[in-house]
Specification:
heterotrimer, A alpha+beta, B alpha+beta, C alpha+beta, A: alpha+beta, Uridine Diphospho-n-acetylenolpyruvylglucosamine Reductase, domain 2, Enolase-like, domain 1, five-stranded antiparallel β-sheet, four-stranded antiparallel β-sheet, 12 strands, 28% helix, globular, C: alpha+beta, Aldehyde Oxidoreductase, domain 4, Aldehyde Oxidoreductase, domain 3, 3 domains, seven-stranded mixed β-sheet, five-stranded mixed β-sheet, 17 helices, 29 strands, disordered N terminus, Diverse_Substr_Oxidored (chain A), FAD binding (chain A), oxidoreductase activity (chain A)
Chain lengths: 327, 213, 742
């Protein structure tokens, strides 16, 4: 690892100033991804600004919103009573990620900021448009078993690795930011982006914008939830495909529903159209299968990940069945 | 805990007073120049290259490890794992992957299990670290250590310090209520010898014992 | 350890060191002024190094040296050149920095030395090389056409009876099986600490399964007298075979330590554990198997093609299991190698047999299905009552007992003969089994026993303990014979200079070293009996006859006369009377050629569930049964068996080092992308031992256990998957995508 400067800040303003002032600086929160990437030489900041002392760890209810501080630990979120009661889907999604130790280190904001786990991104002697724009996508014709089936470009077919973000995008969360030009709110759905012509850009943050919190509106989606993560081993592995499901059932009718997939795109994949299809319909396997067929429209395999074209809809159906007790 | 405040202030001061820091850098360089051989001078003249840069990048670090306070000076890039293994002669904590993929380096920081390979040592300023060496009370082993012996929760023993640190935390966190829950919450600690079933038995037994850990 | 503990289920004797973090592995050894070494690997898989720019690295802070081909003189021992017929543990055909030729991706092109770990990490990244690239070959499947017959012994084609006669059998199957590269990945990284005293004496702490073999390698390379090379490896953090040879990185570290004149520590990155220290080779196999309609085998042909490196021939006994496992009159085996631009493989737990058994035991299951026979019954019908390959009786064989006890424990009666007929909700339930075997070997070992006046017995042997519990086994044997509690026995092992022991490989250690401990203890008792018979001793006064060992009772309190236990002496009194500080006995012990065939046998039963919609698979229960002769240390032996089952689960369901053929480099060489089982993957594993003495192999009658614990597990899982789903999967690993159905 290159040596770098390290400073600690304890106010949001100092944190933002530090990053704006120095183009080669990055914030350090849990470090579970950044330190790893620095060891690999994928990221080489010359200064780390440690933000762990910022007062952004709180999880609280404000009006009809659940506010989760950006520095709340993943394990705190997963075990938090308020989260488990009001937004159990989020608790399940967070708990499906990484390991207990990593969840004890990783923060909410850091989880959102994770880089892809694409091996071509991680190895500096391989082509990767995300790491080094213009070098090509190593995965496109390479080992792309873990890769995206929804993408807007062949320049990058990496997937976003976060489970938590799949839960948050399903729950209509909003990201609260503080930056050099003041505060800003972004719907979670617009936080991560598709690669397009800028595969190096994972999200829509501007330089110097700090994630302060995520906000989840109250809902009635806490009774029938499931987060199903299909992976190569039972635990401590990234998703092949994951599905986040939260349903408000009235009898056996779907009154309201939130759906999202993980492991299928450069961003957590919200399925709004599928939700609309299922709203008002009966919670039956037949309907779930139709919904799943809708969910996979426009998907495309790149060879080794072709199985996801089957796995994604099947995982969605399975998660729906489990959430609504139809399995 | 007074240490914590001062370390933090110093770091912030360094940052907030960038010009002062630059001056500090330069004066360090001058000091270094005064005492170093010609080869170094030449390297320094060619621009502040690597060799020169190495002379001044350490940070103060006050940290408590296994109940002992240390006032150290470390490079920001030093991980907690390398600090305790290489500089503090506490080799009980193991390096298995160095990338957060195996759990062998698990230690407790302020009572929570974390991976020391992904923890920059400087971020543990003012914190209390417990490693495998800090568990036993003299000759009296920690109940989790006893249980690992009783159930033979290892073979080669290399992942064992991490497993034990993780197992204690697993119970403390309230995630040892069934064998399946233990399996899930212990999945961040890889054991290539495959002692998993015995590890689960050891943790379940300690949990049943009900001691405060 | 408390004295009332039953000696037959003793705790692992080094357990306390392991749970307190005081067990020292190679990289844990701290020597004043140690500097740090790190390897820099080639970024091409084949070619020549044109130039290496080390300037930036050399200028980096704290850097003491950068060794490369261009600045490193060849070692004096580097004169023999390539010798493909030499077994890989015998030499060092690839030597870092001795050639500018690149044979594989990540082959070391430089070794950087710096004063701190952080600095060497950084400096290593600054080394840049220019290559003259050549076209690499890294795919076994794409290069099968270049397969050749290996030159080593026991690798020639084999035919018993008529060649390929399965083709004429009334019921037959013919199938291909594939096993990808599987990597040992012990949790401990390859590590070495080396320091020189002057130019002629070196000491290393290193990760080896045999300190003497490493001593020999270093002494050969540097042309030093053996006695000038000291190797320590008391504890090693698993190895599973990767420590069975001295790797180029170890020699390079010793070179670098000499060059900088300081103690040097070199620890491999996990990535380098995939590329530089061997693996289980990829193997393509074909089995033809034919039987009569009532299920008697007629013909078996087993062909295998494995990969080796571009610079060495590595062979293993992949097809050999098919020669003796079942009674079959006509057997043909063929074994081929394909050289690839990869590091040389090395034996991995159940080497050859584990790969071969995946094909053979899958094929047996396939033929049983074709015959509509229960797979256990099919195997019993073809049980080999004597070794059909060597035409010798077995020294012992209780395979049928294993079938029986395992079937009972797993609930085999609940297995449906027709696949995909056992459903639990959306999950498909299946049962499977697979058998395994491995040669039961007894090699040579010397052990020294020192009985001290305070009633403590020290046992010394250079053998080490990578985890199976060698020290515990030695303690158990000695405790039993000497009447001492385990806590009174001190094991000194894992260093050169101690009486020579075997490599820890091939499941030989209990038979080899255990027998030596046995012999030493009995000799010691005889020696004590002779002393006790001397005129003037209390024992000779009470018993005028010459005393034999069996006339005396040995315990932690000392000696007593069996016929009159009131006649007793503590060891300290006894030694004082004889003017001795201690009683010392050294014995060499070895197996002898016998007209018997010796193998250990295992049978593994698996119950699992498959969720066809998502491809998820959940193993519910594993029962592993072993005929390994007398079980000397039940507690550690059970752990060893459980570990084998876990390894087999990894092999069956997840392990696969993927090479991107375009670049000739592994793409998942880390523990996040190369999956090994985690705790949540592992169900209850029941271990059942026949525990019957083998009358031939040695005095305790113990056969080996380490390999058979794994051999046969992977096919048991593949067979259970077939029973659950009706899908026959002949390519490992059986990942989710392969089980996925619409």
């Amino acid at each position: 690892m290159i040596n770098f400067d390290y400073v600690r800040v304890s106010t949001i303003k100092a944190a933002v100033d530090a990053i704006v002032k120095d183009n080669n600086s990055l914030w350090l929160a849990g470090g579970t991804n950044l330190v790893d990437l620095m060891k690999k030489g994928v990221m080489t900041p010359q200064k780390l600004v440690d933000i762990n002392n910022l007062p952004l760890k709180e999880i609280k209810k404000e009006g009809n919103k659940l506010i989760i501080g950006a520095l709340a630990l993943n394990s705190t979120v997963a075990d938090n009573e308020l989260v488990r009661k009001e937004q159990p889907l989020l608790a399940l999604a967070v708990q499906a990620g990484a390991s207990a130790q990593l969840r004890n280190m990783a923060t909410v904001g850091g989880n959102m900021m994770q880089r892809t786990r694409c091996p071509y991104f991680y190895n500096t002697d391989m082509p990767c448009n995300k790491r080094e724009p213009g070098t090509g996508c190593g995965a496109l014709k390479g080992f792309n078993r873990m890769h995206a089936i929804f993408t807007d470009t062949e320049k990058c077919i990496a997937v976003h690795p976060s489970d938590m973000s799949v839960g948050l995008v399903a729950l209509d969360a909003t990201v609260l930011l503080s930056g050099p030009r003041g505060d800003r709110r972004i719907p979670f759905q617009n936080f991560h982006r598709l690669p397009g012509n800028l595969p190096q850009k994972d999200n829509t943050l501007e330089r110097g914008e700090l994630i302060v919190a995520v906000e989840i509106p109250e809902n009635k989606l806490n009774k029938h939830v499931h987060y199903l993560k299909v992976r190569d081993r039972t635990s401590y592995a990234f998703a092949l495909v994951s599905a986040a499901v939260a349903v408000d059932l009235e009898g056996s009718t779907i009154k309201d529903i939130r759906l999202a997939l993980g492991g299928v795109a450069h961003k957590p994949w919200r399925l709004t159209e599928v939700e609309n299809f299922l709203k008002g319909k009966a919670a039956t396997e037949v309907n779930y299968k139709q919904a799943a067929a809708l969910a996979i429209r426009g998907a495309k395999g790149f060879g080794l990940n072709n199985f996801k074209l089957k796995l994604a809809p099947n995982t969605l159906v399975e998660a729906l069945k489990t959430a609504t007790g139809k399995s | 805990m007074a240490k914590k405040g001062s370390g933090q202030n110093q770091a912030e001061e360094n940052y907030l007073n960038e010009s002062r820091r630059n001056f500090f850098k330069q004066s360090s360089l001058l000091t270094a120049l005064a005492v170093t051989p010609p080869a170094f001078l030449k390297a320094a003249e060619e621009g502040l290259d690597e060799k020169a840069a190495g002379y001044f990048e350490k940070m103060p670090l006050a940290i408590q490890i296994n109940g002992v306070n240390h006032d150290l000076s470390v490079e920001p890039r030093t991980t907690l794992l390398d600090l305790i293994r290489e500089q503090l002669a506490l080799p009980g904590t193991k390096k298995g992957c160095d990338h957060g993929q195996c759990g062998a380096c698990t230690v407790h920081v302020n009572g929570n299990r974390v991976l020391s390979c992904l923890t920059l040592a400087v971020t543990a300023e003012g914190k209390k670290v417990t490693t495998i060496e800090g568990l036993a009370d003299g000759e009296k082993l920690h109940p989790m250590q006893e249980a690992f012996i009783k159930y033979d929760g290892f073979q080669c023993g290399y992942c064992t310090p991490g497993q034990i640190m993780s197992g204690i935390a697993c119970i403390r966190e309230g995630h040892a209520n069934s064998d399946d829950e233990i399996r899930e919450y212990m999945s961040g600690n890889i054991c290539r010898c495959g002692a998993y079933p015995n590890i689960v038995k050891a943790i379940a037994d300690v949990k049943k014992g009900g001691q405060t850990l | 350890m408390e004295k009332d503990k039953a000696p037959d289920r003793i705790d692992r004797v080094d357990a306390r060191a392991k749970v307190t973090g005081t067990a020292s592995y190679a990289a844990d050894h701290k020597i004043q002024n140690t500097v740090y070494g790190l390897l820099v690997g080639s970024t091409v898989a084949k070619g020549r190094i044109k130039s290496i720019d080390t300037k930036a690295a050399e200028k980096a802070s704290g850097v003491l040296a950068v060794l490369t081909y261009f600045n490193t003189p060849k070692l004096p021992g580097y004169t023999t050149g390539k010798d493909p017929s030499k077994p890989p543990t015998g030499g060092q055909p690839l030597r870092f920095f001795a050639t500018n030729e690149i044979f594989y991706y990540d082959q070391a092109i430089a070794l950087v030395v710096a004063d701190t770990y952080e600095r060497v990490l950084h400096a290593a990244k600054l080394v840049k090389a220019q290559y003259e690239k050549a076209t690499h070959k890294t795919s076994l499947e794409d290069n099968l056409a270049t397969a050749k017959v290996p030159t080593g012994p026991r690798q020639e084609d084999y035919t018993r009876g008529e060649a390929d006669s399965y083709k004429n059998a009334p019921v037959k199957i013919e199938q291909e099986y594939y096993h990808p590269v599987e990597v040992h990945n012990p949790m401990e990284l390859g590590s070495i600490v080396a320091f020189w005293e002057g130019a002629e004496k070196v000491t290393v702490y290193t990760k080896t399964q045999g300190v003497q073999a490493t001593q020999k390698s270093i002494s050969d390379a540097f042309k030093l007298p053996l006695g000038n090379v000291t190797v320590h490896a008391r504890h090693i953090g698993g190895a599973f075979g990767m420590g069975l040879r001295t790797w180029p990185y170890e020699i390079a570290a010793v070179m670098a330590a000499k060059k900088v004149g300081k103690p040097l520590k070199l620890v491999l990155h996990r990535e380098q554990m995939f590329t530089n220290v061997g693996y289980r080779p990829a193997t393509k196999q074909k089995i033809g198997l034919g039987a009569t309609a009532d299920g008697k085998l007629i013909g078996l042909t087993h062909e295998a093609t494995g990969n080796t490196s571009a610079y060495e021939e590595f062979t293993e006994a992949t097809v050999n299991i098919s020669r003796f496992m079942y009674a079959c009159p006509n057997v043909t085996t063929r074994y081929r190698l394909v050289p690839l631009n990869v590091c040389t493989p090395i034996w991995m737990r159940g080497p050859g047999e584990a790969t071969g058994a995946f094909a053979l035991e899958s094929a047996m299951d396939e033929l049983a299905h074709a015959l509509k026979l229960d797979p256990v019954e099919f195997r019993v019908r073809n049980h080999a009552d004597s070794d059909p390959e060597k035409n010798l009786p077995w020294s012992s064989k209780y395979l049928k007992e294993c079938y029986e006890m395992g079937a009972e424990r797993i609930g085999w009666k609940n297995r449906k003969l027709q696949p995909r007929t056992n459903q639990d909700g959306d999950w498909l339930v299946g049962y499977g089994m697979g058998a395994g075997s491995f040669g039961a070997m007894r090699w040579v070992a010397s052990v020294k026993g020192i009985l001290q006046p305070e009633g403590k017995l020290r046992l010394q042997c250079s053998v080490n303990d990578m985890g199976p519990g060698t020290a515990t086994m030695m303690t158990a044997v000695a405790a039993d014979i000497m009447g001492l509690p385990p806590g009174r026995i001190i094991i000194e092992m894992g260093s050169t200079g101690l009486p020579p022991g075997p490599m820890q490989g091939g499941s030989n250690v209990t038979a080899t070293v255990g027998s030596a401990v046995h012999d030493v203890c009995f000799a010691m008792k005889e020696q004590i009996a002779a002393l006790a018979s001397k005129a003037g001793s209390v024992f000779s006064k009470a018993n005028s006859q010459q005393l034999k060992a069996e006339d005396l009772l040995f315990s932690e309190n000392g000696l007593s006369l069996k016929s009159d236990t009131s006649v007793r002496l503590s060891y300290s009194e006894f030694f004082k009377q004889n003017g001795l500080p201690a009683v010392e006995v050294t014995k060499e012990s070895k197996g002898t050629e016998q007209p018997y065939s010796s193998y250990s046998f295992s049978v593994h039963f698996v119950k699992l569930r498959v969720h066809p919609a998502t491809g998820r698979i959940k193993i519910d229960h594993v029962v592993s049964c072993a005929d390994a002769g007398t079980i000397v240390s039940p507690k550690t032996s059970e752990s060893q068996m459980i570990g084998g089952a876990v390894g087999g689960i990894g092999m069956a369901l997840m392990e696969d080092m993927v090479i991107d053929q375009r670049f000739g480099r592994p793409i998942n060489n880390n523990l996040a992308d190369y999956h090994v089982p985690v705790n949540a993957d592992i169900p209850t594993v029941d271990v059942l031992f026949v525990n019957k003495k083998d009358p031939i192999i040695g005095p305790m009658g113990s056969k080996g256990l380490g390999e058979i614990a794994l051999v046969g597990v992977a096919p048991a899982i593949a067979n259970a998957v077939f029973n659950a789903t009706g899908k026959r999967l002949r390519e490992l690993p059986i990942t989710r995508d392969k089980l996925l159905e619409v």
